[in-house]
Design brief:
The protein is an alpha+beta fold. The protein is 35% helix and 21% strand. It has an eight-stranded mixed β-sheet, sandwiched between helices. Strands 1-2 form a two-stranded antiparallel ribbon. The N and C termini lie far apart (72 Å).
Amino acid sequence: RKFLSLPNKARPFSTLALPRQFVSPITKDKFIKIFAYPKQKKTSKMDSLQATNEEVKAKYAEKWSAEQDELHKQLIIDDVHGFSLDEDDDIPRLKYVGGVDISFSTKDDTQACTALCVLSYPDLKVVYEDYEQVTLDAPYISGFLAFREVKFFQQLLDKLKATKPELYPQIVMVDGNGIWHPREFGSACHLGVVQDIPSIGVSKNVLFVDGITRDVVRQAADNELHKGGDSFLIKGESGKTWGAIIKASDKQKQPVMLSPGHKISMEMAIQLVQDCCTFKIPEPIRQADLRSRDLVRKNGL
């Protein structure tokens, strides 16, 4: 046997014995490089990019949380909308209900089409429609969808107010959530406050908050919704009422979920959504959804 002595700082043992045939072709430096210092795991570009994206999202979330807190101070969940659903000499009757929606490209997640439809009430005829292809410049972060979409809805509403103010809706329904939201400030609340317009959030998906899950909503729907127009308030484990579920029609099995957005009470929101449902979702949102999807197809997105 032949002994190879290593530097103290690199020597795994005091003396390392190796067979002659193994030692002879390997230099001392090469041996130290191979055996004495373990290789460090390399960080891939994908790992670095993912870490960077998470850091960016964390900064956005911190900034947006502060903005939501400030906007939330202006939120009103009460009937201060200035219209009536019935004939009333003192309060103008509701004439126009708006609906906004957005459809996304299947090829590029920064491309989407937004749509605004205004319907007459109570006959639900489309009296105005507008749509636009947009480029999304904010990341998707759960709980902060408004910061990605609402500004485009504002642009459509501002355009309507400037060109045909007589058709400007007295209330707008948003494909999203109102106070049924982890911070009690979903897209419908956000749009309502920044645009100063009464709003309602309507969703087809259950947003988990305060112990509310799909199973909770499904059980409530099975037990409480028997015919078209039936509604039921959804409460969390804290006892807070977050929104309501509605059976849109006798044929519909899945309920519609709603919550007040701004300047409207829970009771009025329920009644309006009931009045506007002829299919699975309220007609103003359904018409906006159809048009935004159609524009996505036409533009080859």
